Amino acid sequence: MSAETWALTDSHCHLAEDVLFAQLPDIIAAAKQAGVSRFLVPAVRRRDWERVVQLSHLPEVCAAALGLHPWFDVENPADDLAALAQALQQYPALWVGEIGLDFHRASDAEARARQTQRFVAQLDLAQQYQRPIVLHHVRAGAAVFAAFQQTGFKQGGIAHAFSGSVETAQLFIKQGFKIGIGMMLLNPNAKKLHHAAAVLPLDALVLETDSPFMRRDAVNTPANVRQVAETLAQLRGESLANIAMQTEANLNRLFFKN
């Protein structure tokens, strides 16, 4: 089936990163050549926000998100959170992200407490303004779900770069999340992810690259979501067209749920 009869979305690409932003027309053109026509663009630091808002006006960007990534400590978190609240008021279509917890990076109690405090504060804003989130979660599943319970967060979103078990995925799905399947699927040794991607309901999955990251040999780009889709189709024994159509419908339900 030709690429003209279906299209894919990269549901997680950092187009605001310099290496992609500097060659954005070529990046978008190459993605379209591969059948990838839409992009969801999250921020990771406050300094990204202006550029991400700028990108949100492109016709190819179906959604954009502002947030504070757990990897990066900030000097004045209260100022950044106030600025995030102001931006959410100003731009009613923006999501909140990339936010979350990464207890692989934060191995001591103090660092984890700082991450959790920022995460909870951003969840509060996402719930207040009724926005989905782009969720980063590494070795912190119990703490993530505890934060959802603490804040009463009910807006759902995307559990980005999922690599866990079927059981964990099902917990996210019950919480209103779609499961982000990315470049790790191309790793033949990612057996747990392969199993989850094969058996989870297709209406719970979305595709992503995490560009420009996730490749050691080259700069990752949104065009590579085509490889993710093809691998998912092989694992599930389904056509590429069906994978594309269903994952697009899944994203559209998130975009238009309100």
From TrEMBL:
Superkingdom of origin organism: Bacteria
Residue sites binding a divalent metal cation 2 per the record: H136, H160
Record-level GO cellular component terms: cytosol
Pfam families the UniProt entry points to: TatD_DNase
Key words of the record: Hydrolase, Metal-binding
An example molecular function term from Gene Ontology annotations: metal ion binding
Residues the record lists as binding a divalent metal cation 1: H12, H14, E98, D210
InterPro entries to which the protein is assigned, alphabetical: DNase_TatD-rel_CS (IPR018228), Metal_Hydrolase (IPR032466), TatD-like (IPR001130)
Coiled coil (UniProt feature): none
UniProt keyword NADP present: no
Family: Belongs to the metallo-dependent hydrolases superfamily. TatD-type hydrolase family.
Protein name, entry field: TatD family hydrolase
Organism, scientific name: Conchiformibius steedae DSM 2580
Taxon lineage: Bacteria, Pseudomonadati, Pseudomonadota, Betaproteobacteria, Neisseriales
